[in-house]
Amino acid sequence: MTRRLVPCGLVLAVLAAVTACGDRTAEVGSATLPTSAPSTSASSSAEPSTTAGNAGGEVVGKRCAAASLKGAVEPTDAGAGNRYGKLVFTNAGSAPCTLSGYSGFQLQNGSGAVPTKLERKADPGPKPVTLAPGAKAVANLHWGVVPAGGEPVTGPCQPEPSKAAAIPPDETQPVNVQWTLGPVCSGGRIEISAFYPA
């Protein structure tokens, strides 16, 4: 089987669409969507694969497309002005597929985009996760609710999101998810990890 590597930057130039890149080296940095960072194919990763819902442990199936995924954001913890949650992708298709890398993520409300500054965290870092039908992968989220800089201290620090566009690794189409967790302070700064099995 022959696999072609297609840089995310080339996909962006051709499609003029927002792309989330997968299988990046572990990185700590920030990006505001749209992004156009280079990527490598999940099959070229030096990391061993991790499997959810597949006892064999090998990478099975093609890359997970947005159309085959269902998404949700689930809260996990809160305290001292910090909030934690998980971005959950479920394979809603009928065949196994593989996620590898980081999701793109843009907060939105009825008026359009809400300020979002996505910062990738290296723990856990990118590793292919093969999802059997019905299996889930998650990415950790962390954000703050304490106003910073010139943000207002009375009322919301930023416009309140009602949803988010979550773009799977190496895809250009988003999975729309509800956001019911309030405003995100510090200009919409959200830390996100790579995907790992649920």
Textual characterization of the structure:
- The protein is mainly beta and 198 residues long.
- It has one domain.
- Helices cover 6% and strands 36% of the residues.
- It contains two helices and 15 strands.
- It has helices spanning 8-15, 185-188; strands at 29-31, 50-52, 62-63, 69-79, 82-91, 97-99, 104-109, 112-113, 117-120, 129-131, 136-144, 163-167, 175-178, 189-192, 196-197.
- Strands 1, 4, 5, 9, 11, 14 and 15 form a seven-stranded mixed sheet that branches. Strands 2-10-6-3 form a four-stranded mixed sheet, with no helix packed on it. A four-stranded antiparallel sheet has the order 8-7-12-13, with no helix packed on it.
- A hairpin with a 2-residue loop joins strand 4 and strand 5 (82-91).
- The longest helix has 8 residues, at 8-15.
- It is elongated.
- The two termini are 30 Å apart.
- Residues 1-19 and 23-48 have low confidence and may be disordered.
